Model the fold of this input.
Amino acid sequence: MKYIIKKILVFGSVLIGSSVALADAWNLPKELGDETIQVTFEVDSTWHMVEGVTRDLSAKIWLQDPKDPNSVRGNVLLPVSKFNTDSESRDERLREILLSEKFATVNFAIEGLKGNCIPENLKEGIPCDVDLEGALTIIGKTEKLEIPSQIIKQGADYVVMG
Done:
């Protein structure tokens, strides 16, 4: 079977707070866990597409340059042992294929935002399109990715969905 994580969906208050000063626009740095971020994935199996979710993940997000809202950087660590496709036998096989004993995590390194989403320009409930740039490392191999995403302002919070 060929396994590929095809999409990463991030829900919750990933970037929180709004401030007048650009340096504090996203209110970063932040450390995130299951309560503020959710990652789902799709596995391309022999017969059909299988959806899954993981938990017990951890993430750190920060601004590399406090004056540049697009300089978001981060690290999202996904424990392979917590991948769940609602089939224990399939999950065990997935862990075998991903060599989970040697490579215990999948890592997504956030390298920036590509687009024109600036906190002070976002309007309540109106999504702003951006690409989340980064590098996905699975089984020790790294591939650059651009994940089409949206940032939505909800009250004082900013939610990133991709």
Summary: Residues 131 and 148 are 5 Å apart (CA to CA). DSSP finds one helix and ten strands in the chain.
